[in-house]
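Practice problem: ABC transporter permease subunit
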Amino acid sequence: MPFILRDSVFSFVLSIIGIILLGSIPFMFTNMSFDTNGYLNGIGELFKGLMHPGEIMYFTESGKYSLFPSMWNIYGYSLTLLFSAFFIALIAAIVLAITIFMLPSRLKDKIRVFSFVFESIPDVLIAIGIQFFIVWFFKKTNILLFQIVSLHDQKTYAVPIFCLTIVPLFMILRILLLNMEDEFQKDYIDTAKSKGIGGFRILYRHVLPNTLLSVFHQSRNILWFMLSNLLMVEFLFNVYGITTLVRQMGSPEIFTISMLLLFIPMFLFFTCLRIFTYKWVGQK
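Answer key — structure tokens:
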């Protein structure tokens, strides 16, 4: 446990420094030429700005506003979409994996192929397809299934979360199915069967917890993948979230603060997962 905490603190400090250095890149170039002194001075200016976040301003069509406390609503909206989609994908993938694994092998292989093909479809096509379907359904029935764009006083949640969920769901499902098959080849499964333990009980009491460890190890890549898709979702559904703020403002201070606010909860989440898996493996 202590080595995990030491490693986490070291990684956290290096990551914070890296984000600040990355946010200072606009100061690196002057008139299309590399400016070392400008970059070093820019790092100092950026650091001073971060020490007084209440003085940072951002601009919209309706006027000029202080970044805080407005930032918390923007930040909370994006984080709600991101983590809601992740946990929905995780729960749905677990349920589907258990259901699929109990099916006959021939049907299981067909579902695995479908999952691989569907996972390869770009998220932007899925999001646009959902939008077209909702508009088409509304024209045919005069029933609006979901609000498909955010307005100033009306935020949309269902469709952006659904679009963020689909591809990660199939990614997690593929990981679960592959690891379940590997687990069922191990000796302890034969031992459990020889003791008269049923297949379903073996699946959810022994195989599933072990396969979830693989999902936890891959969760970092999955969440970063979802974060890259968040930019596309916010653009398509007119969501004024944190990636939209960064894209429209282009300010080094706003970019750096936004990246820090995204990095810190994800870092804490991954660290907790790492500690949990360490304890779990130790108990096993």
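Discussion: Residues 199-236 form the longest helix (38 residues). Students who identified this feature from the tokens alone can consider the problem solved.
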